[in-house]
Amino acid sequence: MALKHTPVCEFGLPAPSFRLEATDGRWLDLEACRGPNGLLVMFICNHCPYVKSIREKLVRDCAELQALGIGCVAIMSNDPADYPEDSFENMAQVARQYGFPFPYVIDPTQSVARAYGAVCTPDFFGYNDGLELQYRGRLDAAGADADAPDMPRELFEAMKQVAETGRGPAEQVPSMGCSIKWTQGKD
Q: What's the predicted TM-score (pTM) here?
């Protein structure tokens, strides 16, 4: 597991388009995932301890964000040949087990992760209603500690602000997690 931190938010950067298959068999694009007040794009996977420790929080926060008009989508870009726990079949199982209220899509060519500049799991990209980047930070300060006491909900509060004002907070703490598992010879 190679620990990575996300870069600083590049405010206003446009959301790259995509068309990817979801675990429920639908093909979704950027427009289908966005909400009237913005979009949260999350790069996650099944095997990463950082992601495993926040799944319940993601379900809670995304359900509440969707009620505020923020669309949410999770993208899995790891190489499942080297990380079988991240297979499409296992993605579908995890989405059902945790009741993901958002689509969980696979990026088999890793082109979407590259277009976004994703570096780790989890990696969060929060966009306003114009699909301009406003948040590139962490979920909260707990990291991979699933037993940490309640922390301020940094991602939720930032995206709530984006829904209400169109702008993310000036101060953001980078997310950290396991590196994206690139296909051999392509990283």
A: 0.95
